[in-house]
Design goal:
It contains six helices and 14 strands. The protein is α+β, with helices and mostly antiparallel strands. The chain has one domain: 4-Layer Sandwich (Deoxyribonuclease I, Chain A). The strands form three sheets. The protein has a six-stranded mixed β-sheet with strand order 3-4-2-1-14-13. The chain has a six-stranded mixed β-sheet with strand order 5-6-7-8-12-9. About 2% of the residues have low confidence.
Length: 239
């Protein structure tokens, strides 16, 4: 099962071919337009499509999270979904018997970025007791802990660790949180390494960590012409 997550920074209808070139089974796209602007015909081979968004923020009008999957990977929104957490979206994949959380951590005056992810995932604790994947744009890094009090990045990593979930990047590289050598984000689409950060992640249950056969961040500089994020590609041998 191959999963690709990418914050496309809008205009996904003009960028679809770049991520489908990876031949993913499941796509998780942040900052995507709604289905009206991404007709199913443009995502040929992905009959299972859902878009999650709200048109109530002038800065992100008609942008949300698009999840698309091949026919073998049918999914549905969990009944436990709480739409006050934007956007931490729990999905259930019936054939694979696993949960997937699609993440796009956004700014909110009361609960900015990682603070919202912290509270949401703790609300979904019962779901996390089953095989789960949490993937997407967390807009977070350990270096910004002091901005978020007790609901910071380290708090989330420790909580997920207690739930037997691991960051696949850090498990494979043995690098420390906040000391990543590869980056998923380039501020202002800059090529300067000083403006690059690791803010997109994939956490997985321990049982899935053992069958993860690939974790890749595509840092090809051509991606900077399309977005300020690089895509992450994850593969599991869990059939």
């Amino acid at each position: 099962m191959r999963v690709v997550s990418w914050n496309c920074q809008g205009g996904f209808r003009n960028k679809i071919e770049f991520v489908t070139a990876y031949n993913p089974d499941i796509l998780v796209i942040q900052e995507s337009e709604d289905l009206e602007h991404n007709p199913q015909s443009q995502l040929e081979g992905y009959p299972n499509i859902k878009w999650f968004g709200r048109d109530n923020n002038k800065n992100f009008k008609d942008k949300g999270v698009l999840v698309a999957a091949k026919s073998k990977y049918s999914f549905a929104l969990h009944d436990e979904y709480q739409d006050n957490y934007r956007y931490i979206i729990p999905l259930k994949f019936s054939t694979q018997k696993l949960n997937l959380f699609a993440i796009w951590a956004k700014y909110d005056r009361k609960l900015p970025y990682i603070e919202q992810v912290n509270l949401a995932l703790k609300q979904y604790e019962n779901l996390l007791r089953n095989d789960s994947i949490i993937i997407g744009d967390f807009n977070s890094n350990q270096r910004w802990n002091d901005k978020h009090g007790k609901l910071n990045h380290t708090n989330l990593v420790e909580y997920l660790g207690a739930m037997n979930m691991r960051s696949l990047y850090h498990e494979r590289t043995k690098e420390n949180q906040g000391g990543e050598k590869k980056n998923t984000y380039a501020q202002y689409r800059s090529r300067e390494i000083a403006l690059h950060y690791h803010i997109d992640y994939c956490f997985a249950s321990k049982s899935l960590v053992s069958v993860c056969t690939r974790f890749e961040i595509d840092e090809d500089k051509s991606w900077l012409t399309r977005s300020d994020h690089f895509p992450i590609i994850v593969e599991f041998n869990n059939e």
